[in-house]
Specification:
heterodimer; A: alpha/beta; Rossmann fold; 3 domains; six-stranded parallel β-sheet; globular; B: alpha+beta; Alpha-Beta Plaits; 2 domains; four-stranded antiparallel β-sheet; 5 helices; 9 strands; binds thiamine diphosphate; binds magnesium ion; Acetalactate_synth_ssu (chain B); branched-chain amino acid biosynthesis (chain B); Acetolactate_synth_ssu_C (chain B); EC 2.2.1.6 (chain B); acetolactate synthase activity (chain B)
Chain lengths: 586, 182
């Protein structure tokens, strides 16, 4: 019945790991061919792979794991998916109903443990509820603000027979949930939309601040965003999660904003008079010091989740609704009323922005002997940009450099752990992406420390012929931690140096993949080309300069217009950049 | 806080606003774990619960009503309502304090042990508070007192001095005035 429900929900791939409490479902899997199962090496890997699959396709990712330790191993990816609004359906096995509560072997309170890290979860006690709950799980995961759900199925319920119902047809506008209270609002309030359009038209120093919600809303939303930017001619920046919704080559693009965002994006945010926030959530990595956040601006906030509105920052015009629906209404209104912007004000605003841009905040010291990490990403980008490429990352400096130096032209091409910042996300995510896009080039831009957290999934890639590329910016440090120790703790590098690294080339070979290594800028391009040409999983050990810092940076507790820039900054400035209060922040 | 920059809608607004107490009525599907979910939201996000009651109120429709008394700055209260509202099994969140002065009642059982003057005094005061004696021996009374939390609190303060040894309170049940229904 479980597999039938998956098939009826259009599921083609699931990521999983078997065990005692899910054997009946695995037995069903064995006897069919419609759903392909990808065997991972650790349940966390199944979760992140499902996330990568979901984020790169727009479809829900599905994971299947057993009870107890398998369920607890899922907690990290579930939390990750909750923070980044990724639709995930996780099916867990549970001990038989009669044993629940008895501390049975491999029993854990899965729904209790996963309650705070899912959008919703269920324990199925009766086989006659199974079909309804499974279908409901897909509805909840994929509608409204997407998120992870867990369906916990005791083993006796898996064995039991009951009547199966196919999913209810979703009629237009209805999400077909049996929860009467669950009716996410798709259309925005017309009055608020009109007010917003008027405010936008009258702006003198406007900026679009967009986020992952645009990507989640679907391709149409990204297109509408592009239309609106084109119609207005206004500058646009985006969060880490929103990269690609507007193309990095677009003429209005300011680059990413936030803690490691560009000088021009952050200054435009600080000085703007109208901020149009589309599917982003005023996270602390974005706002910096709250009392100095865009102090002279009126703010419009479009979000499908009412609880995101006025959470961290008060906004003037909140619009609750799906980004695609709301942008469509805005664009239509803009066109039908032939709205005009204040061309003169806009020209002088762009001039101001050009002034900030002239600071070339991403510049770094070039080096002919050792590979600069930024240079490595630039070369990787040049070598892959015409291709059908998907990028995932781990967490750390390499992640920020990837965001800064890799140009994303399309949505759903950039998979990273934004909200939770999960080291070990990128490799399994790449596995999931490659499953969905067999012929595409899938690259995990990795850190040497992060990649070891889920390295075992390289074995999954080998088993399933998934030619993922793990491009490690190997600085032999937990670079981001080292940078913070330099900033905050007198450069006392407590346990951030990774002693006795494995030989990544041999490691790749040990798993049955291909290992490559580049040590100098001179050999980098050839090695990258070799990696791209390899039709097998590759680990690329790109040895970069060890102690480079990631700039620009808004130090914790500071405002947007108080950035540290890389070129000019001295070690002393770095050491004193963060005030006492800022040190308390993370 | 000090001078607010022109045009800024939010300047650590929360630190200048006083916390207020509101009573919320939340209609939910009576599913297993709903209460844990609501309580988990409050503890996980550091919100206050002053009182929380829950029971099934409409059996056929499988609906329960949760009454929560909570204290927080206005921005936090809005957050609480939005966070509750987006939960899958939640049908409706109504801020009874926003819609008017709600009717709020609580019931407490109060055990008072003693002899002599204290006992007489306890009984006399119980009458003033319209508390009923629902169990008694020559050595003790159990009073049942109902009213606003404030009144119940007052009664307990007094009984404290007259041999109160045990208390059980129900928490607040609340409803808005007038003929409208939630
Ligand atoms: C699971 C987990 N543990 C710890 C951290 C804290 N952390 C953030 S970045 C980082 C260092 C990452 O090092 P590496 O992968 O080598 O990347 P680099 O910064 O050197 O590019 C650490 C330990 C985290 N984000 N996730
Ligand atoms: Mg590193």
């Amino acid at each position: 019945m479980v597999i039938q429900a998956l098939i009826d929900q259009g599921v083609e791939h699931i990521f999983g790991y078997p065990g005692g409490a899910v054997l009946p479902i695995y037995d069903e899997l064995f006897q069919q061919e419609k759903v392909e199962h990808i065997l991972v090496r650790h349940e966390q890997g199944a979760g992140h792979a499902a996330e990568g699959y979901a984020r790169s396709t727009g479809k829900p990712g599905v994971a299947l794991v057993t009870s107890g330790p398998a369920a607890t191993n899922m907690v990290t990816p579930l939390t990750d998916a909750l923070m980044d609004s990724i639709p995930l359906v996780c099916i867990t096995g549970q001990v038989p109903t009669s044993l629940i509560g008895s501390d049975a072997f491999q029993e854990c309170d899965t729904v209790g443990i996963t309650r705070p890290c899912t959008k919703y979860n269920w324990l199925v006690r009766d086989v006659n509820d199974l079909a309804r709950i499974l279908h409901e799980a897909f509805v909840v995961a994929t509608t409204g603000r997407p998120g992870p759900v867990v369906v916990d199925i005791p083993k006796d319920v898996q064995f039991a027979t009951g009547t199966y119902h196919p999913p209810k047809k979703r009629t237009n506008g209805d999400i077909a949930s049996s929860y009467m209270g669950y009716r996410p609002q798709l259309k925005g309030d017309p009055a608020a939309i009109r007010e917003a359009v008027d405010l936008i038209a009258g702006a003198k120093k406007p900026v679009f601040y967009t986020g992952g919600g645009v990507v989640n809303s679907g391709r149409a939303a990204s297109q509408l965003l592009r239309d609106l930017v084109e119609l207005t001619g206004y500058p646009i920046t985006s969060t880490l999660m929103g990269l690609g919704a507007y193309p990095a080559s677009g003429k209005n693009w300011l680059g990413m904003l936030g803690m490691h965002g560009t000088f021009e994006a952050n200054n435009a945010m600080h000085d703007c008079d109208v901020m149009i926030c589309v599917g982003a959530r005023f996270d602390d990595r974005i706002t910096g010091r709250l009392d100095a956040f865009a102090p002279n601006s009126k703010k419009i906030h479009i979000d499908i989740d009412p609880s995101s509105i006025n959470k961290n920052v008060h906004v003037d015009i909140p619009i609750v609704g799906d980004i695609g629906h709301v942008l469509e209404d805005m664009v239509r209104l803009w066109r039908s009323e032939s709205k005009q912007v204040d061309k003169k004000a806009l020209a002088s605003w762009w001039k101001e922005i050009e002034g900030w841009r002239a600071r070339h905040c991403l510049d770094y010291r070039a080096n002919n002997d050792v590979i600069m990490p930024q240079y490595a990403i630039q070369r990787l980008y040049q070598a892959t940009k015409g291709k059908d490429t998907y990028i995932s990352t781990e967490v750390g400096q390499h992640q920020m450099w990837a965001a800064q130096f890799y140009g994303f032209e399309e949505p759903n091409r950039w998979m990273t752990s934004g909200g939770l910042g999960t080291m070990g996300y990128g490799l399994p995510a790449a596995v999931g992406i490659q499953v969905a896009h067999r012929d595409s080039l899938v690259i995990d831009i990795a850190g040497d420390a992060s990649v070891l957290m889920t390295i075992q999934e390289f074995s999954t890639a080998v088993q399933h012929d998934l030619p993922i590329k793990i491009f490690i910016l190997n600085n032999k440090y937990m670079g981001m931690v080292r940078q913070w120790q330099q900033l905050l703790h007198g450069n006392r590098l407590s346990h951030s140096y990774v002693e006795s690294q494995p030989d990544f080339v041999k490691l790749a070979e040990a798993y049955g993949g291909v290992g490559l290594r580049a040590k100098t800028p001179a050999e980098l391009d050839d090695k990258i080309d070799e990696m791209i040409a390899t039709r097998q999983p590759v680990i690329f050990d790109c040895q970069v300069v060890n102690v480079e810092n990631c700039f620009p940076m808004i130090p914790s507790g500071e405002a947007h217009n108080n950035m540290l820039l890389g070129e000019s900054v001295s070690d002393e400035e770095v050491a004193n950049a963060i005030g006492e209060e800022g040190k308390m922040l993370v | 806080m000090n001078a607010q920059p022109a045009g800024s809608a939010y300047f650590f607004a929360s630190s200048s606003e006083e916390p207020v107490t509101h009573t919320l009525s939340v209609i939910v599907d009576n599913e297993p774990g709903v209460l844990a979910r609501v309580v988990g939201l409050f503890s996980g996000r550091g919100y206050n619960i002053e009182s929380l009651t829950v029971t099934e109120t409409e059996h056929q429709k499988h609906l329960s009503r949760i009454t929560i008394v909570t204290t927080g700055k206005p921005m936090i209260l809005d957050q609480i309502k939005n966070q509750l509202g987006r939960m899958v099994p939640v049908h409706r969140v109504t801020d009874l304090t926003d819609t008017g002065r709600p009717l709020e009642r609580e019931l407490a059982l109060v055990k008072v042990v003693g002899r002599g003057d204290n006992r007489v005094e306890a009984l006399r005061l119980a009458e003033i508070y319209e508390a009923k004696v629902i169990d008694a021996t020559t050595e003790h009374f159990v009073f049942q007192v109902t009213g606003t939390s404030y009144k119940v609190g007052e009664f307990l303060d007094i009984m404290q001095h007259l041999g109160m040894v045990e208390v059980a309170r129900t928490g607040v049940a609340a409803m808005q005035r007038g003929q409208e229904v939630l």
